[in-house]
Write a structure and sequence with these properties.
3-stranded antiparallel sheet; 15 helices; 11 strands; globular; disordered C terminus
Length: 423
């Protein structure tokens, strides 16, 4: 289903037949064949990109979530230069949140086509784009999932996203996935991705980037891939942003340490007490209290990877202050500006969304600090911005003491005049 993003969000989709191993295997085979055919014939269908960069950057976003890319583009100061032409998102609540985030960030998404099921999208007639961003569903590739890869319905979405890339050949592609995608178990799929991008004549770089190495104390390793159409590539080699030197900022800077627990929350911490001892009362830890004792692990001054399920269930505990992780803290540990959080909360309240929707959305998205750095590298690599623009990823150079406030500072720095509100 495709419609204008300016209209009401998609209605509930009709039930679809259950996916079986046999019919999903046939679906994968068909998608792989389509991708290969499109990638092999792009020169007969599409012109090469102009050496002159476009004034307006057309953005397409698959599995868009609440809009991590929207926020990153605002913090990079590019919000008034970009125009979203295509958005795909199956979740009605995330569509609503995306609408609120776009409005808060002053990003034009008013006329973007909204696809609620990209598996049914006709990629040959889909809008073309200069920048394509996608963070496909991860459970099929994650160690915490069943590791079925493309044989799982959600895993096949990755391959369908490749079909859009092969059909439209955006100037710049940014993909994100869990790091276990590089496991030898998925070597054939990853090899297919690289082969397809080679057929499409892209310069490519990829690697695992961790949120904690880019200025925010959360351990969140993710695979990022950049692909730039060869004729658009800058003279300098395409590279992912390097990690920040030294340790991440103190965890307590990202916590509301003045808010203390009331002592009425019954939580089993015995497993952690046995492992951490007196440090439980002396140091700041963010503990995953939803995991079994076998998998309980904590690192001083470092938040574990925030996940949608745990955040929705408020399954993280903060030591010293003896309470559960707050929404404001989860947002800060993902680099989300306070103004955006408030816009999301207001939308959730006016649309009567469940309490955990906003918090859960933060665990199902890219870290803003990392995405800002990756987008900066990619946009320069594709000559979509000047070579000296965004050349120093903000979180990699800011003093540690300022890191927790940086997203708010950048959001205000690139404030949008009232008349520029695009929604």
């Amino acid at each position: 289903m495709t419609k204008s993003f300016a209209g009401s969000v998609a209605k509930k989709r009709p039930a679809t037949p259950p996916v079986t191993k046999s019919n999903n295997k046939e679906l994968v085979r068909c998608v792989l064949k389509d991708v290969t055919n499109l990638a092999s014939t792009w020169k007969d269908r599409l012109p090469r990109h102009s050496a002159t960069p476009p004034t307006t950057i057309r953005v397409a976003s698959d599995c868009a979530g609440y809009g991590s890319d929207v926020i990153a583009l605002r913090l990079l100061g590019l919000h008034q230069r970009v125009r979203f032409v295509m958005i795909s998102e199956t979740s009605k609540s995330k569509q609503l949140l995306h609408h609120a985030v776009s409005k808060a960030c002053g990003v034009s998404a008013k006329h973007a086509s909204l696809t609620t099921d990209l598996m049914k999208r006709d990629d040959l007639t889909a809008p073309g784009s200069d920048l394509y961003v996608a963070g496909y569903p991860c459970p099929s590739w994650s160690k915490l999932g069943k590791l079925k890869g493309a044989m799982d319905e959600r895993g096949c979405v990755f391959l369908k996203g490749m079909k859009y890339i092969a059909a439209q050949r955006p100037r710049l592609v940014v993909l994100e996935q869990v790091s276990s995608m590089l496991h030898h178990r998925f070597a054939k799929v990853w090899g297919f991705v690289k082969k397809t991008l080679a057929l499409l004549d892209y310069n490519v770089c990829f690697g695992v980037l961790n949120t904690k190495d880019h200025g925010i104390p959360q351990s969140r390793p993710r695979l990022y891939l950049l692909a730039v159409a060869r004729e658009s590539s800058a003279a300098a080699p395409l590279k992912l942003p390097p990690p920040r030197r030294g340790p991440p900022p103190p965890l307590q800077d990202f916590l509301d340490t003045g808010i203390l627990g009331k002592g009425n929350d019954s939580v089993d911490l015995e497993g952690y007490k046995a492992k951490l001892g007196k440090k439980m009362k002396q140091k700041f830890f963010v503990l995953d209290i939803g995991s079994s004792k076998r998998f309980q692990h904590a690192v001083e001054d470092l938040c574990p990877c925030l996940t949608k399920t745990r955040l929705q269930g408020r399954g993280y505990w903060v030591t010293k202050v003896n309470r559960r992780l707050l929404l404001s803290e989860a947002a800060r540990l993902q680099g989300v500006p306070r103004a955006v959080v408030l816009a999301m909360q207001n939308k959730a309240n006016t649309k009567s969304l469940s309490a955990g929707v906003v918090q859960g959305a933060f665990g199902d998205a890219m870290s803003i600090n990392v995405l800002c750095a990756v987008l900066g590298s990619g946009l320069r690599g594709a000559n979509l911005i000047e070579q000296n623009a965004c050349s120093h990823p903000h979180w990699s150079v800011v003093p540690l003491s300022e890191a927790s406030r940086l997203s708010d500072v950048l959001f205000q720095k690139h404030a949008v005049p009232t008349a520029g509100n695009t929604k």
